[in-house]
UniProtKB/TrEMBL annotation:
NCBIfam families: ffh (TIGR00959). This is Signal recognition particle protein. Involved in targeting and insertion of nascent membrane proteins into the cytoplasmic membrane. Binds to the hydrophobic signal sequence of the ribosome-nascent chain (RNC) as it emerges from the ribosomes. The SRP-RNC complex is then targeted to the cytoplasmic membrane where it interacts with the SRP receptor FtsY. One of its GO terms (molecular function) is 7S RNA binding. Transmembrane segments: none annotated. GTP binds at residues 102-109, 184-188, 242-245. Part of the signal recognition particle protein translocation system, which is composed of SRP and FtsY. It is found in: Cytoplasm. Its EC number is 3.6.5.4. Residues 263-276 form the SRP54-type proteins GTP-binding domain. It catalyses: GTP + H2O = GDP + phosphate + H(+). InterPro entries: AAA+_ATPase, P-loop_NTPase, Signal_recog_part_SRP54_M_sf, Signal_recog_particl_SRP54_hlx, Signal_recog_particle_SRP54_M, SRP, SRP54, SRP54_GTPase_dom.
Length: 435
């Protein structure tokens, strides 16, 4: 997906403004990329149509590449489509019942353990219930997990009736004062009628406060169809997307949300009990786009950058002509934007170039003094600054030769970074940061 999006955004490179023409070309590429990431074609088309309108409407800030601006629009749209905000589960009830459904191997039992562990850590009394009566190892698997996390497991190894077991577990939970019952069910390799009927019967018997559908994110388009079938039968409340630690493509999250109109509530990112996260649509959008903090950088830049100044500097950066005067100008802009350390960390390349500095707004003072002690020629052509000039600059700015050396070194590194970035698209640069 990343490569596809890079191709898409490359279309915009070098253009100062998003025009109809390049938006059309770019959205087409984005659509293709989304489809490749397992997003349903119709969903991908809807998304890109909307993005197209927004991109054309939006005035593009010059200080950041229009490509990045476009990324931001796509990111916002994806976030919105995935529900905007994180959603919780309903665990009110006496006891509350969380029913876990999904295909075999999707990660139901593992997730049941994780959810139990999470709720236990919140101080709730939880009972896990083993309703997979088809595989002898299934009960054992849940028991092992229960022991590991210190949560009791209700099981009836000799009983083959899952509905009975679930009903008995409820009675047991009431007797023992457990507040939440998590019912782990069986799954088949493909959706089949017997399994569907059984889960539906369990639902009718225990009246869950929350039904979660667990789906393996690696299964791509199939995940969407499975979700649809389960939803028609169970009308579930939320989705758990598992195995996102692999090279799963986030596209399933988008399609499922669009097709069944139910929120994704958790993502599972590993076999360990801790590997469970609430689902944050914005983070998933970033994952799909693979671009890390570029989005927030664009946002803040939008708020504070002086457009003309930014335009001028951007042009110089593109031509690899960034000099000390520009550097000074940037420092002053950055100071206006607030927390310097955060901001610098967000700029690809700058973070590492400036990591040796203990940065706050005051630490700019010697830097500013050094640059101000340079002659115009020295600022424009830093290569001129030899040993005797360094000494003069250090004296003039009340700093040491070493400080002058450091600054020049950092400046050189920054310029090298910029040069690199000019031949590389920002999303690719951020891909590394995202890992
Ligand atoms: P169930 O048949 O739906 O109960 O699935 P299980 O919970 O038994 O999981 C099937 C396999 O997937 C097991 O080997 C799990 O360890 C593994 N698994 C479950 N969730 C994840 C996950 O988020 N990431 C990875 N890498 N493996 C997972
Ligand atoms: Mg299982």
């Amino acid at each position: 997906l990343q490569d596809k999006l890079n191709t898409a955004f490359r279309t915009l490179k070098g253009k100062d403004r998003i025009s109809d023409i390049n938006v059309a070309a770019t959205t087409k590429e984005v659509r293709r990329a989304l489809v490749d990431a397992d997003v349903n074609f119709k969903v991908a088309k809807d998304i890109t149509d909307r993005i197209k309108d927004k991109a054309i409407d939006r005035k593009i800030l010059i200080s950041v590449e229009p490509g990045q601006m476009f990324v931001k629009i796509v990111q916002e749209e994806l976030t919105e489509l995935m529900g905007g905000k994180a959603e919780s589960i309903n665990i009110k009830g006496d006891p509350a019942v969380v029913l876990i459904a999904g295909l075999q191997g999707s990660g139901k039992t593992t997730f049941s353990g994780k959810l139990a562990s999470m709720l236990k850590k919140q101080g709730r009394s939880v009972l896990l219930t083993a309703c997979d009566v088809y595989r002898p190892a299934a009960i054992e698997q849940l028991k092992v997990l229960g022991e590991q996390i210190g949560v009791e497991v209700y099981a009836e190894p000799d009983n083959k009736n899952a509905v009975d077991i679930a009903t008995n577990a409820m009675a047991y939970a009431r007797k023992m004062g457990k507040k939440i019952v998590i019912v782990d069910t069986a799954g088949r390799l493909a959706v089949d009628e017997v399994m569907m009927q059984e889960v539906a019967d369990i639902k009718a018997a225990v009246k869950p406060t929350e039904i979660l559908f667990v789906v393996d994110s690696m299964t791509g388009q199939d995940a969407v169809n499975t979700a649809k079938t389960f939803n028609e039968r169970l009308n579930f409340d939320g989705v758990v997307l598992t195995k996102l630690d692999g090279d799963a493509r986030g596209g399933a999250a988008l399609s499922i949300r669009q097709v069944v109109e139910k929120p994704i509530k958790f993502i599972s990112t590993g076999e360990k009990m801790e590997a469970l996260d609430a689902f944050y649509p914005d983070r998933m959008a970033s994952r799909i786009l693979g671009m890390g903090d570029v989005v927030s950088l664009v946002e803040r830049a939008q708020q504070a950058f002086d457009e003309d100044e930014a335009k001028r500097i951007n042009a110089k950066m593109r031509q690899n002509k960034f000099d000390f005067d520009d550097f000074l100008g940037q420092l002053q802009q950055i100071k206006k934007m607030g927390n310097v350390k955060d901001l610098i960390g967000m700029i690809p390349g700058m973070g590492s170039a400036m990591k040796d500095l203990d940065i706050d707004n005051d630490s700019f003072k010697p830097i500013e003094a050094i640059i101000q002690s340079m002659t115009k020629a020295e600022r424009e052509t830093p290569e001129l600054i030899d040993g005797s000039r360094k000494k003069r600059i250090a004296n003039g700015s009340g700093t040491s030769i070493q400080q002058v050396n450091n600054l020049i070194k950092q400046f050189d590194e920054m310029r090298r970074m910029m040069k690199k970035m000019n031949t590389m698209q920002a999303p690719a640069a951020m891909k590394k940061a995202l890992r």
